Amino acid sequence: MEKLLELKHVALTYQTKTDEVKAVKDLSFTLDQGEFISVIGPSGCGKTTILSLIAGLMKPTHGEIFVAKANAQFGYMLQKDQLFPWRTIEKNIYLPLEIKKKCDAEHKSYALELLQKYGLGEFRKNYPSQLSGGMRQRAALIRTLALNPDILLLDEPFSALDYQTRLSVCDDVYHIIKHEGKSTILVTHDISEAISLADKIIVLSQRPCFVKYIHKIDLGGRTPLERREHPEFGKWFEKLWKELNE
Amino acid sequence: MKKDKTKEFSADHIKYLGKLRKKTALVWALGLGILAAALLLWQLLADTGVFDVFITSSPKRIVVTIADLIKNDNLFYHIGVTLYETVLGFLIAVVLGTFIALLLWWSDVLRRVFEPYLIVLNALPKIALGPIIIVWCGSGSKSIVLMAVLIGLIVTIINMLSGFLATDKDKILLMRSMGATKFQILRKLVIPGTMKTFVSTLKIDVGMAWIGSVMGEYMVSKAGLGYLIVYGGQVFKLDLVMAATVVLCLLATLMYLVVAAVEKILIKN
Questions:
Q1: Is A153 within 8 Å of B177 when comparing Cβ atoms?
Q2: Out of A80, A96, A147, whose CB is closest to B170?
Q3: Residue among A49, A84, A143 with most chain B CBs within 10 A, to mutate
Q4: How many angstroms away from the CA of A55 is the closest CA of chain B?
Q5: How far apart are CA A136 and CA A123, in angstroms?
Q6: With CB atoms 3.0 to 4.6 Å apart as the test, which of B60, B184, B205, B254 could cross-link to B180 if both were Cys?
Q7: Highest mean pLDDT among A77-81, A156-160, B2-6
């Protein structure tokens, strides 16, 4: 597998008025082309910070982050869909194009194609408020994919949805990501979600976080929903649960 | 997902709609009824001599006075003067205030430098600046416009700035992750995201501009509705005071309706 991203002993300390906060102590792992990594850790351990570091929104205090491709594009997806309510779905997915000044016919038609392909074509002229939570999250993913990013960074993208919707959107998102052949890092506190999606799971410690364990997950080429039925699933859950709480 | 208007409604739904319509009709009837009753009572008490019309005037006399003003005293000239001062004061306060709020949003340092000034200026009763304004700007409509601007400006800055600052942090993070510049964040997120605040600020500013212009006319003026009111008070012509006040009410309502129409254009979703 081709290595796409590598973190080498990354550490981050940030300053506040009253304190010096050690958020990340020592992070090393790699992301291969087409791989899906789930990062789990106790709440408040600095999972979101890791994504900000990788996306280049923060500079690490120590260590290095290598990206194999020069000018690699990152696609960042957050907990809530963050669609702009005053824009139609179509205009929402054009937002990254506008920002990168690539709002030409070619890029637009690529984004529109994604919208069509993933079943939101007929809603392109609708406003986000007219869509269900699951559809909105799908629209948010398409916005993330609109610039054809090399690496997807997902920050608990399903946790704002109710349980039923979460399962189906999770399936949905998995299919889209695999279909588009994207490499992905997902941070979550939901162990089942991590197992049902990932090729590799990274378990973090309490803050300041370091990598406690790295596990390869091989439950066959199944969808997230099918994985949840797999006999190994429960064992993994138990194992990870223990590791998180030890 | 638009509703098909030609769709047949069930009997229950039609009943429900009828109920809604009845309620709306009731609200309107009560609202107008209270006004009519108050006017009627006022007129009755004036006619029977319970009220001294010299002090209280009466609806009939107000109507006669307004008709008189139109015929003899050029009411529309006075309306024009006040309207000019109010609208100009309103526009300057809105444009300048929003612009200053933008600058303060942009620069953290500027914001921290000017925050105490804003707080003090907001607390200061602007009417206290009246004498200074008159000495500096003379007794023309310039002073009155300035008064209207001063009253609206600080409120506009404070309102708009807190609107800008309330922009969702996650949306800013999202924009930054896309590589947006600060200017792009401003143009594509912060400004369109504060349209609701902007409209509510406009509504407040309409009121502020009227306060400013009428107060300005109380201080120093040769024409305008505020002038008519003060003049009427000085010569004890309460009919004139009441008539000018009624006209003022109508104009303020009209301007509010204009802002409400602007709201419909600015806020679609």
A1: yes
A2: A80
A3: A84
A4: 7
A5: 10
A6: B184
A7: A77-81
Q: Report residue B51 as tokens.
A: 């009220």
Q: State pLDDT tens for residues A43-79.
A: 878 888 899 999 888 899 999 999 888 778 889 998 8
DSSP letter at A39 equals E
| Residue of chain B whose Cα is closest to the Cα of A56 | B177
Residues in chain A within 8 Å Cβ distance of B195: 86
One-character DSSP codes across B53-68: HHHH--HHHHHHHHHH
Q: Which residues of A touch B168 (CB under 8 A)?
A: 82
Picking from B1, B168, B171, B174 by the largest number of A CB atoms within 10 A of its own CB, the best residue to mutate is B174
Query: Residue B219: its pLDDT value, please?
Result: 87
Task: Compute the half-sphere exposure of residue A76: CA atoms within 13 Å on the CB side of its CA.
Answer: 25
CA dist., res. B90 & res. B148, Å (int): 7
Q: Do B170 and A79 touch (CB under 8 A)?
A: yes
Q: What is the dihedral of CA B42, B45, B47, B48, to 10 degrees?
A: 170
Percent of chain B with pLDDT over 70: 97
Count the Cβ atoms, other than its own, within 10 Å of residue A34. Answer: 15
Domain ranges of chain A: 3-72+150-245, 84-149
**A129 touching B (Cβ < 8 Å):** yes
- Quickly state the pLDDT bin for B1 (edges 50, 70, 90): very low
Q: What per-residue confidence (pLDDT) applies to A159? A: 82
> How is residue B188 annotated by DSSP?
I
Asked if B195 lies within 8 A of A129 by C-beta distance, the reply is no
Domain B66-266 has CATH 1.10.3720.10: yes
Q: Which CATH fold topology does A3-72+150-245 show?
A: Rossmann fold (3.40.50)
Q: Is A125 part of the contact surface with chain B (CB cutoff 8 Å)?
A: no
Residue A57, min C-alpha distance to chain B (Å): 7
Kindly report, residue by residue over A177-233, the tens digit of the pLDDT: 888 888 999 999 889 999 999 999 999 988 888 899 999 988 876 788 888 888 888
Could you read off the pLDDT of B39-48 as tens digits, one per residue?
A: 999 999 999 9
What residue of B is the nearest CA neighbor of A99?
B180
| pLDDT band, residue B269 (cuts 50/70/90) | low
A129 to each of A2, A86, A91, A134, B255, how far by Cα in Å? 41, 9, 14, 12, 31
Give me chain A's average pLDDT, please: 89
Q: Which residue of A has its CA nearest to B172?
A: A82
